[in-house]
Design brief:
The structure is a single chain. With 655 residues, this protein is an alpha+beta fold. Helix 5 (499-516) packs across helix 10 (633-653). The longest helix is centred in the N-terminal third of the chain and has 21 residues, at 2-22.
């Protein structure tokens, strides 16, 4: 190889000398000549110096070196591609990308006479050619037939690490192993180093770093630094050297990874695994294929309720086997990454207890082994996820209301949602999720205000749910009586608006708002039907209501009459006057109509109802202006809200 290289250089220098003699006038003219492999190259745009660097048309040099050139007008970028090598240059920018790696040039590519001009040395050498500049004759010589190292890389393969060296021509790879320094030096006699001379840290697959360099005679050298104890094997072809590095099992430990019982198998890269469960006796087994055990076989004796010991050994020349001896069957997952393998044992849930007290719910989990829980989600439908969990043989779910047991189920019984007779707890459900865990679902009658999770040792956890305070009208019953209906239209406005429709629209809005405030609302009618006065009184008195409100719109023979008034009966319930005054105050303030005051009347619905009662006349439907308002959705909503706020104020003052 060295003799061939010397001969090649000798021939090249002879050609250079002949060309120098043949072109005596070049230095005098200042023109730059380009000679490739001994042939003078003519270009339509002449090479020239820019920032002391020679620029040439990109296609002239790249295509002669076997590369394809693509010009992108929109971004003014040039892409040079040959085999797996890709160079990307941008007009006016010194940045160039070679196989994704950025380099900074001494001078930027330019456009001259509609041709893209690029630095000849950088492009030529990246495409494997050698460049020689003769300053005396202003001549650039390019030799495209240089033997070079084109690649020194690490790849994390399936089950092993691989270091690959490649050349563009046949080469001899001379390997020297240094066991004291755990390194391999590859020398390529007569081969140039066609890649950057640098050290690349790897820290994966048993390789610490790869360094590309040169020997004293200029031959390429690559130093592969291995981790201590790493086993290796190598192969080579005429143009490649491959170093194979099987996975090394460095250590095996019993840990609580994220609070779950875990066997941690540390390796120098992601291995190929095969898991199985054996019985008589129960064993969890994981085989690591194409792996070597660093320190020999061993056993870890455990003080654990379910896992007695961990055993590991070199099962055969290519397989490491790890065995967990179990007291009984435990589901487990195998998770692999570049750090190694984790055997994660599922939590076996023994008991779930749900305690409901005034304003709070407490859930306690107890497992036989390591337990992990996540933060709960939801408000009225709370979901508490227990990752990597399964049921123990005699698992039970218990529900306590005020300290007394109110229900007990097995996991099979409660897989579907189970209704409970709780004040704040509506349903309990436990289901298996798609990732091999359990979801405890609680349906609440009131939204959760805060939720706190505390671990109770390694095997337990407690979820404390503080519920939002009950709505202010919880436990109150209100009768709403939209006046008239059916064959009785009530007063009729100048535009033909029927009072019965206005009354019902306001009443239904009030029902929705009072329900949201926690009240039980009874409507004397929810549609357009006639209800007698006697039936209205009967509905109210039989409901056990806390108050009664009759809803009306006023009418008068003169259209000028307008405003709001409220009535109560002096012979009715003693709190009726206060009810009428309170809701009238809020109604007038809300709808901003004339205040006609609170008055007394012996209306049947006020005189004969047994609870505090009031009748409101929101506005005059016979007044053209107020008829328009009573037909407005916005006005109806304000009136309903004002009345509800008055009812709320009444109850709060009587709390």
């Amino acid at each position: 190889m060295r003799k061939e290289t010397k001969t090649k250089i000798s021939v090249l220098m002879t050609l250079i000398l002949l060309l120098i003699l043949a072109l005596p006038a070049i230095a005098d003219t200042g023109e730059i000549r380009l000679i490739m492999d001994g042939v003078l190259v003519q270009t339509d745009v002449a090479p020239y110096l820019h920032n002391n660097r020679t620029l040439v048309p990109v296609r002239v040099i790249a295509e002669r070196l076997g590369a394809d050139v693509h010009w992108e007008q929109s971004t003014e970028t040039v892409t040079i591609r040959r085999d797996e090598d890709v160079l990307i240059l941008t007009i006016g920018s010194p940045e160039v990308y070679v196989n994704g790696r950025k380099y900074i040039l001494d001078t930027e590519p330019l456009i001259r006479d509609k041709r893209t001009m690029v630095p000849i040395r950088f492009i030529s050498e990246r495409l494997g050619a050698s460049v020689f500049w003769d300053e005396k004759t202003n001549t650039v010589y390019i030799d495209s037939a240089v033997s070079r190292l084109t690649e020194a890389s690490y790849m994390d393969g399936e089950g092993e690490g691989l270091v690959a060296l490649k050349t563009n021509e046949d080469a001899v790879f001379v390997r020297e192993y240094d066991p004291e320094n755990h390194s391999i030096l590859i020398t390529l006699p007569g081969i140039n180093c066609g890649i950057p001379l640098r050290t690349v840290p790897i820290q994966l697959g048993g390789v610490s770093s790869i360094t590309a360099g040169e020997a004293q005679d200029g031959s390429a050298q690559v130093l592969i630094q291995l981790e201590p104890g790493q086993v290796w094997a190598d192969t080579q072809t005429a143009r490649s050297y491959i170093l194979s590095l099987p996975r090394m099992v460095k250590s095996i430990a019993w840990i609580h990874d994220n609070e779950l019982d875990t066997v941690m198998i540390s390796t120098n890269g992601e291995p190929i695994t095969r898991a199985m469960t054996l019985q008589d006796p129960w064993r969890a087994v994981v085989d690591l294929e194409q792996a070597i055990l660093s320190d020999g076989e061993g056993t870890l004796e455990l003080d654990h309720a379910l896992v007695e010991r961990i055993r590991f050994a070199q099962y055969d020349t290519q397989t490491v086997r790890v065995v967990a001896d179990l007291v009984k069957e435990i589901p487990y997952q195998v998770v692999s990454d570049e750090r190694g393998v984790r055997m994660i044992f599922s939590s076996l849930i023994q008991e779930v207890t749900v305690h409901e007290e005034e304003g709070s719910i407490t859930v306690t989990l107890q497992a036989e082994n390591g337990l992990k829980v996540s933060a709960p989600a939801g408000s009225k439908d709370v979901v508490w996820n227990i990752p990597a969990a399964a049921w123990s043989d005699a698992a039970v779910i218990q529900y306590f209301l005020g300290g007394d047991e109110a229900g007990s189920w097995s996991p099979d019984q409660i897989g579907n949602s189970t209704s409970v007779a709780g004040v704040m707890l509506r349903t309990i459900q436990v289901v298996t999720d798609a990732k091999g865990g359990l979801n405890l679902k609680l349906g609440l009658n009131r939204s959760a205000q805060t939720m706190t999770v505390l671990k109770n040792g390694i095997t337990g956890a407690i979820l404390s749910i503080a519920l939002e305070p009950p709505p202010p009208l919880t436990g109150k019953t209100v009768v709403l009586d939209p006046g008239h209906g059916g064959s009785d239209p009530g007063a009729v406005g100048p535009q033909g608006t029927h009072e019965k429709n206005v009354n019902l629209a306001v009443g239904l809005r009030m029902k929705d708002e009072l329900t949201d405030l926690g009240a039980r609302v009874i409507m004397t009618r929810e549609g357009d039907q006639f209800i007698s006065l006697a039936d209205r009184v009967k509905i109210a008195n039989s409901s056990g209501a806390d108050l009664y409100v009759s809803i009306h719109a006023n009418g008068y023979t003169q259209e000028t009459a307008h405003g709001t008034e409220t009535f109560y009966c002096t012979t009715g319930h003693p709190d009726s006057a206060f009810l009428a005054q309170t809701i009238h105050q809020y109604l007038v303030s809300g709808i901003q109509r004339k205040d006609r005051g609170v008055k007394t009347a012996s209306f049947t619905v006020l005189k004969e109802t047994m609870m505090p009662s009031a009748l409101v006349e929101i506005a005059f439907i016979t007044n053209p202006e107020e008829e328009l308002l009573l037909n407005s959705d916005g006005f109806r909503t304000i009136a309903a809200h004002s009345l509800c706020q008055g009812i709320l104020a009444y109850f709060q003052s009587h709390s």
